Structures
1.
Amino acid sequence: MRILSGIKPTGRLHLGNYFGMMRPSLELQNRGEAYYFIADYHALTTVHNAKELQEYTRGVAIDFLACGLDPKKAVFFKQSDVPEVCELTWLLSTVTPMGLLERCHAYKDHLAKEKGPNHALFAYPVLMAADILIYQSDQVPVGRDQKQHIEIARDIAVKFNHTFGDVFKIPEPLIQKGVELVPGTDGRKMSKSYHNTIEIFEDPKWIQKKIMSIKTDSTPVEEPKNPDTCPLIALLRLMASSEETEQFVSRYRKGGIGYGEVKKRLAELAIETFQEARARREELLAHPSRIDQILAGGAEHARAVARRTLAKAREAVGL
Ligand code: ADP
Ligand code: TRP
């Protein structure tokens, strides 16, 4: 089984990225042939500063390795080190209906927020389909917000195979139950674009401050509280043992617990959970050439696979 996922280098790693995409990907590296990449072509849809792009790309590489990506088990590379993916994007575009892309949530959100989205933003899902299909991926672990993009990749693969003959495997999205949406400090989905993120490798004091600032309702301490709608409980479920979470849940239902107490515990957990990763990260920062070596090795491996698929696709369309 081939597992593939990508992460865009557009900012620093936050709890939403980690629990939604990175942790499931790390678990899966033991269960199949894993391909994980840094989606720098995708980041270019919004990052228009060369130095920034390079810093973010390096940052994601370090963070992914620090969190446990094992380059002996997973092929780890930069998307742009396999430029064949851009040629495949063009071939796939020829069977992609405009309407399919116009219906994308991500594109519609940009349309609503920004003055004028660029063409790359509109074509984003086609490049993402090429990422997935070029490696003949079976499963794609992502957060729920990416599900629509995987469905588009499936639609494009089916259409291409139907039009030109069987070239691509049809991929499946893999969305972890329970971490569909990690809430941010304002209770909405944690996302860089909402400025409500908790970055996992920030200074511990800053993490604590951020967690203490999570928005909660104004139910008084004595009164019962609803654990099912509280972002603190959702975050606790990700980091505390199930026994500890259940204790908090039952104290919520009884009343007599203040949000401040939960936040304090949550801050401890957020720091503890990433302690080892933090140490590994320091170690990697001290040996930067190791990161270049890993990415170069990954690119070589990935490129060989990509070239084979692209050759088949070119032949199928008549090039
Ligand atoms: P952001 O929304 O901060 O820009 P990205 O879009 O770069 O994050 O997401 C990178 C990966 O992390 C994707 O697979 C996405 O589904 C996952 N992810 C991001 N935020 C969350 C969240 N709040 N809950 C679950 N998964 C998330
Ligand atoms: N669009 C994804 C995100 O924003 C990143 C990504 C690019 C990706 N190509 C991919 C994820 C292929 C999975 C498979 O998070």
Note: The chain has a mean pLDDT of 94.
2.
Amino acid sequence: MSIQLLTEEVASKIAAGEVTERPASVVKELVENSLDAQASTIAVDIQGGGLDRILVADNGYGIEKTDVPLAFERFATSKLSQADDLETIATFGFRGEALPSIAAVSQLELITRTPDSTSGSKIEIDQGKVIEIGSQGSSFGTSVTIQHLFRNFPARRKFLRSPKSEASRIQKLISKFALAHPEVAFTLTMEGTQSLLTSGSGNLREVIAEIYSTRVAEAMLELEWDNTEPMVSPRGLIGVASVARSNREHMSIFVNGRWIQNRALSYALQEAYKGFLMERRYPLAIVDLQIPYDQVDVNVHPSKTEVRFQDEGSIFSILQRSVRQTLLGETPVPEFNRPVQNQKPTSIPQANLEAFWPEVQPDLEASNSPKPEISHSENHFPLNERSRSLIPKGALPALRVLGQIQATYLIAEGPEGMYLIDQHAAHERILFELITAEVTSQSPKIQGLMEPVTTNLNSLQAEILHSQKDTISGLGFLVEEFGETSYVIRGVPAVMTNQDPASGLVDILDLMADGGGYESWEQRAAYSLACHSAIRAGKVLVQKEMSELVRELEQCHQPHTCPHGRPTMIHMSAAHLEKAFGRRG
Ligand code: ADP
Ligand code: MG
């Protein structure tokens, strides 16, 4: 085949694919445009995880009437004019690609008005074709509505997860924007319910209180930096150990207000916390690195989440040193090998208790039991005879339950000291093993419904139900099609006690749609049913229920972790307690 120039249409579809990978990337581009337009309020409204509708409305400087059609030309931007400008990009946008790309894969309506014009303008574009341009009464600013995203792109739609998981990406994205820009008032409404509202007061602690909680906001330390290197100035709030998390999602790193994902910088942040956090705990921290524009290259990837630094080493080191300095300013270095009695217990600040309990680790390697699985991918499903025999039943000693804390944790005593058990995680483990055994032996316990229940499923739920029919009936669901989108449920898995059958089915289909990773559908189904059916944190249990739960956990093959690999319990050995109370050196 001879070489040909791509037609404008094909070229723009390729570009559209890079910029608009999913609903969240569309939201990102629109919000960035609003920030570039110096908006002080930005409202985002999402329906169907963004696939049905996305609305982003701002009170920024708007677009001149004559410029409105231009904004939808490829490489049309008001933010750059010459190549030199690329060296010092201070705006989020500069490629002039977002609006045309989004318009090529959706039905878009933009209404805008600049402060000095008397009327607003409106443009409507459907799958790249301009349908209407005209005047429209409106307040200052710009609002963009996107409907039917990827309607004509079934392949793209196929790669998306459920609307629920797209919605959660958008939620995360907007919270990152809000954390990076406390001076902007953000509102996020999802499926008609307001899920985020920040005041725009400029106070980061307030934003943290809104997104996390006041407890977290109060436990954040102001990042200190003595400013010996004027080139980079880190700003932000970093969390003490008591607000640490079990994953890296809550380490928010921004460069000049732009949320970035950079392995080296996350690593620097984690390293700075060394000795302050338990293993597999990650900081909650919000850091914005202010770096001169000519020191950063943001033109690396169309989605602009990656950046390159002129001098990565020094940025890495400044981030690490400033975080470390801040943490050290707050607390002395915890010395893990020194007996705890050398510290004055009364001087231990509440928030940093974790740092002083270095030996309190999930009891992952109980003596003479094999190492339990710690991640999905290491799970073997279904458990075959060989793996059953490899895992001696009853890896836990007999435990005596003493009570419940915060309606969430059980406290128990065993020959090796004290155990704190997470009731939800423990029950998830118990149910997971039970469900696995039932699926393996193809004998699910079914609870027949006296009165069949009908329910509607959305297209993704229906798709999973159809494609995973055997898996789902293997769990114990008796479901039949009943018209276009309706289904009738005649039976549910027996483990699903006390729950509404319809919402149970819907929930499990959603959970199955969300589950990423490499595990099989059977595994995913078993996790989902176990997670859905397990008792929740916050449920008060009576003594008998607690004892039964612990008895059943003792019978599990792998009692130390929930099916997702999180610990079901933490163990404080008798020796540790003795040391902590100064009974032994
Ligand atoms: P870029 O942001 O890279 O310039 P876009 O395609 O996102 O490209 O936008 C094209 C142009 O449309 C922008 O340069 C800007 O002039 C204008 N524009 C887009 N959104 C807004 C908005 N919310 N407020 C004001 N102007 C906007
Ligand atoms: Mg833009």
Note: Confidence is low (pLDDT under 50) at residues 331-391.
3.
Amino acid sequence: MKKILSFIVLSCAVLSAYGSALVNVYGRQYRLLNGRWDAIVDLYDQGGRMKVYENRQPEGETDFYEYAFDGGLRLEVPGDWNSQNPELKYYEGTVWYGRHFDAEPQQGKREILYFGAVSYRCNVYLNGRFIGSHEGGFTPFEIDVTDDLKRGDNFLVVEVNNRRTKDAIPALAFDWWNYGGITRDVMLVTVPDNYVHDYKVQLDKHKPDLINIEVKMSEPVAGQSVKVEIPGLKKRFEAVTDENGEVQGAMNVKNLKRWAPDAPVLYDVTVTGGDDRVEERIGFRNIEVDGTRILINGEPRFMRCISFHEEIPQRMGRAFSKADATMLLSEARDLGVNMIRLAHYPQNEYTVRMAEEMGILLWQEIPIWQGIDFTDAGTLEKAKGMLTEMISRDRNRCAVGFWGVANETKPGEARDAFLRELLSTGRAIDTTRLYVAAFDLVEFDRDRKVFSMNDPFTENLDVVAVNKYMGWYHPWPLSPEKAVWDVNPDKPLIISEFGGEALYGQSGSEDIVSSWSEDYQARLYRDNIEMFSHIPNLAGVSPWILFDFRSPFRFHPVNQEGWNRKGLVSDRGQRKKAWYLMRDYYKSKRDAEK
Ligand code: GCU
């Protein structure tokens, strides 16, 4: 029998393991439960047996408990535990978080406990009772706690575990730090008994003047009045719900200013349903493929892209706040990008919304990253759940132009079937974005003297992306100006990763890879930029990566010290020589589109 993990992810009627959480929580009435929480580090997973979530206090003369939340370790929420305590830097296991909070449940209202993300899996307990669980470190989930809340003091416990497992996503070994903890906002959202749970207000995939509308109320009640108002367009849509509590419709609009990279137009939108009212700013744009070109609002655009992990290198911790988003996005902006690949997992909502305000297109993906067990049915369900949660959260975010379903997977019957399932899951929810996956399968064909790839699965994608480290993992088989590509010639191709490592400030021969020098990295970038001009269907490039980032298997004691040094910017924010080459290249690409 499969070894049952001592940390059990309990299924529970209250919370479906996967499904869409409340959309647009920041546009609702909410109270943050962020701050310093009490914590118990439970390396041997004994807390469940000891029922620490009951938070019992000794009574009488003979009572005692070998735990207490009060008086011990305290951890900031949101935030990973690794960067908050030196002893937790490498910690992989269970941490019990606990905190008190007061509640005043109101008649006719529901209280929804919402987590932006918990890495990697968790069980949630309120006032000593298990109320729900979730697996997946990068997507939100919610629990309706209306019937569990007490008037006055409540005690909330979250049992968090970040142990890597073969059936997890990502699985046992991945090239980023395994941060654990309650890593994004926690909030109590107050909504009416029947509230607007989900909605889509989206420009039609192809039409420039048709806005499609879907609103889903929390209760399957017919006859509820629903309104969607866009004052900036002088438009109001009104309808009543069907027996499922849902409304579908559309409205033609005039004089719409469509959102575009470098021209981010957003409109105030109000969605009301019954007694509920949700507000936010939404942009409207078209993104589609025309042969080998990517069109934004009908115009071909070259994707001047960069990747970054959800990490602030200076504090060696996971990014989670507006300030973190500002740092990452402004550094990307200075490079001259019009797109960011949020590697390799959905990142926090501050980053997504701020990119939208700044006019930066986004590629978001779920962490199907090497080493996934494609034969495991449970893993497929988890992947579908993560994809659903990612799309549901950001479906109204016009900045998101691409959904990525995999990174560097190998062809095979199980992999193909798994990814086809993922694509049909995604396309059942959202057909307005381009579906993409990144592959590291391009080889140099010595007979034909071209770079080619053989992975029939790519035909299922709108855009094909290739990670290719010419000059780093792969020596040049011929000079870069002769490096012609013949990869999916009828589809847009994005070079989603290229680059090499350099230790900031280290100089050396531009001919020697192991110099780990800025000189070699700059030469590598010059060579790759030359090669790009010989890829006929190239629709975009994305250097790997904006910042040096933490990785447990980058061992070199001088050049790496647990850092992957492919950043264009060092972990201390210093721009390497290659940064300037990319900035100039992107400026030339942008000028060519004027
Ligand atoms: C891979 C992978 C990245 C990794 C990079 C590297 O392409 O997608 O996540 O960090 O290579 O080896 O640096």
Note: Residues 175, 344, 407-408, 440, 467, 497, 544, 564, 566 surround alpha-D-glucopyranuronic acid (CB under 6 Å).
4.
Amino acid sequence: MNMVDIILKKREGEKLSPQEIQHFINGYTKGDIPDYQASALLMAIYFQGMDKEETYQLTKAMKESGDVVDLSAISGIKVDKHSTGGVGDKTTLVVGPLAAACGVPVAKMSGRGLGFTGGTVDKMESIPGFRTTLEEEEFMELVNRVGLSVIGQTAHIAPADKKLYALRDVTATVDNLSLITASIMSKKLASGSDAIVLDVKCGNGAFMENLEEAVELAKGMVDIGNADGKKTIAVITDMNQPLGHAVGNSNEVIEAIETLKGKGPVDITQLALTLSGIMIYAGGHAETMEEGMEKAKEALHSGRALEKLASFIEGQGGDPAVVEDYSLFPQPTTYQKVLAQESGYVTEIQARSIGLASQHSGAGREKKEDPIDLSAGIILRKKVGDVVAKGDVLAEVSGRDSLKVRLAAEEAAKAFTIGPAAPELGPIIIRIID
Ligand code: URA
């Protein structure tokens, strides 16, 4: 098989065979196919697209490029949750304990933050002592004992995606439905859970800015998950402003704890109850999604989910006292307020700009190997729809580097739009696709 013929075929809009897709993925993962040929094929796919069957074969080949985790030592139906990436998205830290408190084993592999989106692994590491690298047996033992464990994704899971994602990032080929589907689903299918709940973000802080594309992405991923024998359900959710008020690492974990105490922002609470309710249903602990959501509510209001969070933190070597004492988190030393320049209503908060401002305050990294300031980030004091008077605090930026914090505050200020009329607010849960 010849790579030039494969590129030519796709360039002319023809369908690739499973063997051709496999040849590309295997050869590229091993280093036999150079970046320039892989880039040309990615661009041909970008313009000509792939049909359902090709996308499935691409996902399968990428999944099989590395280890497929065997979670059979964990009893029960294991349910995974994945978000397509957002700003202020700390839902895993709320959803994991809620689902686990209702009997769903959650064995989750998460990523680090890159660019404007954060990563659960970084957030968890702001808890003193918390380990995100565990041996396989320890990981499974923890899920069996506590019901929940979250570790960093190893390099052996879908290595083809790791290489291809880096290439897509520098060849303007990220935002293609088939490529996003294969990238996300290859990792999820290799991670070993029996069922998958997907949070597909839609809006100005997401890959999918409009609903039609988000629905198409969600349907494609659900079809592939189900075709692979995993019950897969997608929820399309709003990402037109950051989720909740906190964006960063320590501050997001604190907001997740507050949510589990029943004192969290409405958007995160609703989203977490919906996602965990669907996980409870997918895990066979409720007859319907609605019943799953009722069970999740009970776990929240009774405090059982908060107790589960503390056990999970302790199980991974972290100090569970953080749940009551937030001074144990890394503390910022410098603060900057963002003030409203006029009176009116907050009509827009560009999620992507807030994500970038948080990254630049020290909370995120430009390159994979950059260190991060776990104390840094942004607290939004106003959200879309709030009334503001000139001089009101819109947001507070904090961290340990005063120059970074000042520059980040200037960037954060540009994310807000204030207008004379109250904006229409859409729901956080847009659609469920199963
Ligand atoms: N998240 C992924 O893992 N891959 C993509 O292509 C987009 C979002």
Note: Residues 332-419 form a domain with the Aldehyde Oxidoreductase; domain 3 fold (CATH 3.90.1170.30).
